[in-house]
Amino acid sequence: MTAEEAPAREDEQAGGPGAGRGRLGPPPWLALFFLLPALLFLGVYVVYPILFSVYRSLWDAAGAEFVGLDNYVRMFTRADTFTALRNNVIWIAVAPAVVTAAGLIFAVLTERIRWATAFRIVVFMPMAISFLASGVIFRIVYEQDPDRGLANAAITTVQDTIAPTGAYPGAGPRDGAPLEEAPGGGYRLADPVAPGDAVALPLVGVSADNLPADAQDAVEPRAGRGEVAGTVWMDFTRGGGGREGAVDPGETGLPALRVEAVRDGDAVAATATGADGTFALTGLEDGRYTLRLSGSNFSDPYNGVTWLGPTLITPAIIAAYLWVWAGFAMVLIAAGLSAIPRESLEAARVDGATEWQVFRRVTVPLLSPVLMVVFVTLMIYVLKIFDLVFVIAPGSVRADANVLALEMWQVSFGASDQGLGSALAVFLLILVVPAMVFQIRRFRREER
Amino acid sequence: MSAHAEPAASAQEGAAPPGPGGEGAPHRSPAARLVARAGSGLVQVLLILIALFWMVPTLGLLFSSLRSSADNAASGWWTVFTEPARITLRNYANLLDNPDFVASFANTVLITVPSTLIIVVVAALAAYAFAWLEFPGRDWLFLGVVGLLVVPIQVALVPISRLYGGTPLYGSIPAVVLFHVGFGLPFGIFLLRNFFASIPRDLLEAARMDGGTEPTVFRRVILPLGGPAIASLGIFQFLWVWNDLLVALVFAAETSRPMTVALQSEMRQFGANIDVIASGAFLSMIVPLLVFFAFQRYFVQGVMAGAVK
């Protein structure tokens, strides 16, 4: 049936018998009654704006002067648009693929799990919350201070386990002390030592507040047979007085400081100082050693990653986007999975395929139409991403995180350049046209 | 994949497993079964970790909203586990005492409820015409609607603000409502039309035979049978509009701004007032979360159908 012919026929034969499919159909004008409100809304809010945006993009900022394609030229020669465009490209290249992959993994992993529904609800839930709320959530996650931001708290915890923060950042020898900076960090005794030696290792630069609670008054170093002994202490007498380089009454030992004996560049013995700052390196063969206060004693605390800085801001926002959208991909792909005929999977397994082969050779190809739909849908959404960037990026790095949709808003309503803003909007529209075509074709195929 | 067929069912029941190790296990050797079971245990542990990973950010917001400003500045929200006594509802009490916040909450409701209702009614009428009435150019017109699904909202911001400019509509709640209706329609028509078209022809013919006029057929046959799809559309649009920031940012005035815009303006001093922002964000999430948990099935349906928007 062609839509153009049908109505004429119906008009003549309305209610008449034997007129084919439209036999009992109402007159076509009745359709208008049903369609009118929708057409009005669509006309005013979607169709007219498309036409007007195209027209408006050819006029200057105030809309007073016709400038032809100037706005488009300007759009592609501004640094701001370039950043926005570059970020959009990153978004398009990364976000849909990552989200689809996560959705696929989650859908497959949960396929045979009893509590899959619970898992899916948890992952799907962020879809119900606004990007604004999600943005707030991730601002808290990404706080720089490891004491407050979860991401950095986790990272610094791991980092501290692998390479603990030094107990005495900022500490060092006084001028004229027998210590010098060691290659690779830390300090070493300028003169070599041999078993039987006792050395005094004075340090300064530790504030009284940062001294460990268990620190006791320092004790003069005294070496036993076959060992190198010494004292590492805070060479500073409270209230003044005291001699430099000597253990005076009231000066405190530095506990838990790592001391190493180095021979030919390798640490052959190591120990830690006690509460009074004394240590003893035992089991050393005769010979000469370099005594080193290892660099790990003095390393600065690790402060975590600057998520919201200019370099990481876009990946950080994409991670938040993944958190929101993975559930969407998962639910669609799970539906696709459950529609795959069991027999094809069984047949492959009977033929001796491993689970991985089944997944790659059977599941994924059969699933590809669904994967494609998810991927294209995400691309459309990603092109229009606005809120997350707007909310997560702090004002200072918003320019670095910029995307086209955000730029369009800023240009049109911040800088009041509606000519350029319209050009940006038209550009966005052009970018989604392929998706539009994909959609229409898919729809027509399904209708058949 | 048809837009409305069994998505909800598969999201729910599709989860129902054929049983652990139900991959034709009987023929396997005991060793192979042991490996499979260990693998499944590993998968479960992995999934638990992922689920935790997904919940923790939201919990962070919740706990931040339950701590005083000073506590939030001094330490991470996870310290509530070691110091549960410091939890306070004061932030929420403050928000509910704040007339600006209450007004923005009311605005959100005043924008969301009418938008949703109007979209549902207008889309249902049009969807019926596209599914069951014959008129010239119907198929092309509907393809046009499908095409409009992907139009970015940015295209309409400047033209509509110009259209509103100078009229009392600008900055009013109806201005925001009407915009949402206009932009929600392509999706609404698309979703409902596909569902309506799957209603058995016999039912309509019978009703027409009995002398039912089209409005009667629409009311007596289509609306009751289309219930699930209408529910999906309603819930989806409700969440969509409730969560909107951009449209309100452009078209709402100070007095008509919804919660999202109010919160967004607080964000400028993020850090100084995490407590206010966190509790506000959590309050703004409560309604969507309730809707999500109550009508999850329909929400999934809407999302599946909207996989093209």
What's the gist of this structure?
In chain A, 50% of the residues lie in helices and 9% in strands.
| pLDDT averaged over residues of chain B | 82
The helix tally of chain A amounts to 14
Order of helices and strands of chain A: HHHHHHHEEEEEEEEHHHHHHH
Adjacency order of strands in the biggest sheet of chain A: 1-2-8-5-6
Radius of gyration of chain B: 25 Å
Strand content of chain B: under 5%
- Structural class of the helices, strands and pairings of chain A? alpha+beta
Subcellular location (chain A): Cell membrane
Organism (chain A): Streptomonospora salina
Main location (chain A): membrane
Pfam families (chain A): BPD_transp_1
Structure commentary:
The complex is a heterodimer of chains A (448) and B (309). Chain A is α+β, with helices and mostly antiparallel strands. Chain A has helices at residues 6-13, 28-56, 70-77, 79-110, 116-124, 131-141, 150-162, 313-339, 342-350, 355-383, 387-392, 398-401, 404-414, 418-447, and strands at 179-181, 186-189, 198-203, 228-234, 258-263, 266-272, 278-281, 290-294. Chain A starts with 5 loop residues before the first helix and ends with a helix. Chain B is 71% helix and 0% strand. The chains are: A alpha+beta (448), B mainly alpha (309). At the A-B interface, helix 1, helix 2, helix 4, helix 5 and helix 6 of A face helix 1, helix 2, helix 3, helix 5 and helix 6 of B. Chain B: It is found in: Cell membrane. Chain B: Keywords: Cell membrane, Membrane, Transmembrane, Transmembrane helix, Transport. Chain B: Pfam families: BPD_transp_1 (PF00528).
